[in-house]
Amino acid sequence: MSLVPRLPAHAEATIHQFLRAHVAQSGGDGVVLGLSGGIDSALCARLAVDALGAGRVAALLLPDRLQPEALTDETLGYAAELGIAARTVGIDGAEVAFHALLPELSDRVTWGNVKARVRMTVLYAWAREHRRLVVGTGNKSELLMGYFTKWGDGGADLLPIGDLYKTQVRELSAALTLPREVRERPPTAGLWEGQTDEEELGIAYPELDQVLYGLEQLRTDEEIAAAAGLPLARVTAVRETVERTRHKRRLPPIPKLGLRTVGIDWRE
After folding, report:
1. Does residue 218 register a pLDDT over 80?
2. Using one digit for the tens of pLDDT, what is the confidence trace for 68-106?
3. Quick one: CA dihedral 87, 122, 159, 192, positive or negative?
4. Cα–Cα distance measured from residue 172 to residue 156, given in angstroms and rounded to the nearest whole number
5. Each residue of 155-165: pLDDT tens digit?
6. Does the pLDDT at position 16 exceed 90?
7. Confidence band of 110 (pLDDT split at 50, 70, 90)
8. Are 137 and 33 spatial neighbours (Cβ–Cβ below 8 Å)?
9. Which of the 8 DSSP states describes residue 192?
């Protein structure tokens, strides 16, 4: 039994159709996304351009002082290759303002979440002024592990790669010949110096995706461990993380009082 998730043959075409349909339904002028230099945002930008045309896709680069200038230059170069409008908006000033408001907060994860929420606030402000939808760049591995900031990078209008595991993201990025430096860069949210995704998650993406794919197929922890060649404790830890972070994938709970209730039985 293989638990390696393979890229569906229809993935690219389905995502293109998804983007075109939602932009048309919105009546807006296109989409905007945060372009970070990582593989997820680079793939989302490419898919959006192929689906909508470069003129309907915009990118904001939202660096802070930790982001190397060379990475910003490289990312602007990628945007130029795609032919999309790109603008750099540094967020250091907003971070300083938050520190002034809440100087007693010192946990780096707390401030990493602040950064993510500042970035999404900038994206939504820009999107509102330019009649755009905000494209989120989260993938399925991150969503299932709760590896995103609630109302930060987890807040978006559309998640075009949200049903692709990280390994599938890499597969599609290679098929579309995204720049090698983008595809080979270690994944990081850039929330603090030296931070990497896999170190925080405690597991490499190829192993993680096998576990998550096994859970998707309703396999037992024992079956997944045997098929993936992983310790049972590691599989169990992933399953427990998926369960513990369920709240991040749902609308805020509402107590049911009326005939039909948003998030429960109100059909949209």
Report:
1. yes
2. 999 999 999 999 999 999 999 999 999 999 999 999 988
3. positive
4. 22
5. 999 999 999 99
6. yes
7. very high
8. yes
9. S
User: Residue 177 has what pLDDT?
Assistant: 95
Tell whether pTM > 0.90: yes
- What is the torsion angle, in degrees rounded to the nearest 10, for the CA atoms of residue 237, residue 240, residue 244 and residue 247? 120
Contact assessment for residue 227 and residue 219, using Cβ atoms and an 8 Å cutoff: yes
Right CATH for 11-197 from 3.40.1060.10, 3.40.50.2300, 3.40.50.620, 3.40.1130.10: 3.40.50.620
Cβ neighbours around 98 below 10 Å, total: 18
Burial of 208 (0-12, 13-18, 19+ CB in 10 A): buried
Look up residue 231 and give its two tokens.
């310790």
What SS3 state is found at 15? helix
Cα angle: 172, vertex 80, 34; to 5 degrees: 65
The residues near 50 (Cβ < 8 Å, ≥ 6 apart) are 12, 16
pLDDT > 70 in the chain, percent: 97
CA-closest candidate to residue 140, choices 225, 237, 211, 87? 211
Rounded to a whole number of angstroms, the CA Rg of the chain reads 19
Residues in the chain: 268
Which residues form the catalytic set?
A: 40, 142
Q: In what order do the strands lie in the sheet with 57-61?
A: 85-88, 57-61, 30-34, 132-135
